[in-house]
Amino acid sequence: MQRTSAFNVVSVALGLAFLYLPVAILVIYSFNASRLVTIWGGWSLEWYRELLRDQAIVDATWMSLRIGALSASAATVLGTLAAVALTRRRRFRGRLLFSGMVYAPLVMPEVITGLSLLLLFVASGVDRGFWTVTAAHTTLTMCFVTVIVQSRLIGFDRSLEEAAMDLGCPPLKTFLTVTLPLIAPAVAAGWMLAFSLSLDDLVIASFTTGPGATTLPIRIYSQVRLGVKPEINAICTIMIAVVALATIASSLAAKRGAMRRNREGLGVQV
Amino acid sequence: MSARAKVKRPGSGRLVVLIPYVWLIAFFLVPFVIVAKISLSQTAMALPPYTPVLDLAAGWDGIKQFASQLSLDSYALLGSDELYLRSYLKSLEVAGVSTALLLAIGYPMAYGIARSPRGLQPLLVMLVVLPFWTSFLIRVYAWINILQRDGLLNDVLLRLHIIDAPLAWLSSDTAIYIGVVYSYLPFMVLPLYASLEKIEPSLLEAAADLGCPRWKAFWTVTFPLSWPGVAAGALLCFIPVTGEFVIPDLLGGSRTLMIGQTLWTEFFSNRDWPVASAIAVALLVLLLIPILLYERLQKRAIGEAP
What we know:
Chain A is an all-alpha fold. Chain A has helices spanning 6-29, 46-53, 55-88, 95-107, 110-123, 130-155, 159-166, 171-200, 203-208, 216-224, 230-269. The longest helix of chain A has 40 residues, at 230-269. Chain B is mainly α. In chain B, β1 and β2 form a beta hairpin. Classes of the chains: A mainly alpha, B mainly alpha.
């Protein structure tokens, strides 16, 4: 029996209000015609127009999107491989070190990861910029992909893979035709998470970037340090809208995929 | 056909391990070795700004000369200058208090979600996770709108005549705690919910049938069973908060810096790379115990899953 008490309802409602109220305020004030937060000057798109005229913000957005897409793709490939290695190959030399290196970046303070990667790039004499930030983000985000894909790999029925292998299907083909379609939702979710983490990262990007590779968070941060500006509210609102749309779209796609699988599953049973 | 030819090679299974392994060694392990090495170097007015630089071309003599110049100066500085010690203590204090606050706020939330109707639970969990997908920087920045001197909080309090003059919310420890609790709440609620949701309702029914009051059933049945979630949530928050940079930098005051800020300043403003590296190494050692604890929990959780 589930019992819903007033205390439970209130604590969940208060918690969610705490989570959403500040963001809602930010979104509302991005449409404020007045420059001051406390004065409501009516609805206006002034700050969005201002934003489009700000070439530095536009450039930084483009830079962040490119770094995000590239690093998320690389992290998805590496993270999926690592997840397969950890779940399907029980024993290999250095497994302990491997799993340690996979999980450690999850909790490692960003200042340490950023500093160590920068010192690596300096020591190896690489010019810092687009590629160094991309490599750093790939390293940071691949472990998140691994954790998501791993939970999916543990969850599903291995007998399908075994059946394919028993019928003489080579391992790589089994992976591509049986395993990969089954874990596809987790791989897609991993890519999404990696992409949004990369778009979000300020600390590691600040350490590993170089001239000409200013990402959006670095740009926003340097503006925020000078105080609140309505343009920043506007760019934040756009980012929130994009993330909300992407999340809704991906959850709808996942639901439809699950329904289709259910139907197909029933078809096989019939 | 080429794909099949590739598969026949016995090495293809090993590549699955080898590719991510090599990447992690190159971009995770090697950088730490470099940090450790530079923390033993001395600051210099040069590029890169430290000596000695390992000269492998000089062969064995080069290595010997390099080893003789290593020093513990940076670590001695960490121990002798009160600034650094205070930073470490400040970080531990903020992380400890925040974790306690997160538990106090996150536990009732997770409990409420786990006790809500089954059909509603996925939606509530999604609502908790959703803010995690928006930018960390945006979420911290959103609070500046509210907490600044001519911000919304002061405005509301003044209009309600609760205060007479605007208070300085920003640049204080209170602001740091608000920012940390706000940013890390999903990290606390999710593991708590995962462990609370697994508890069999029949256990509580049995307790109730045997005449156990509800609060006592909570302390003797529910809370002990949710312990893995409490531990995971606490570690998941404590470790990153200790090294936090963005939240104290944007919301906190300038009097006592957290260790992440001190590292940042040493590196970017003072250009003292050896000291920055030494701070990183010392922070890592400080966090090693909770990180190892977290790894053990993670492994146990994955071991239990199938």
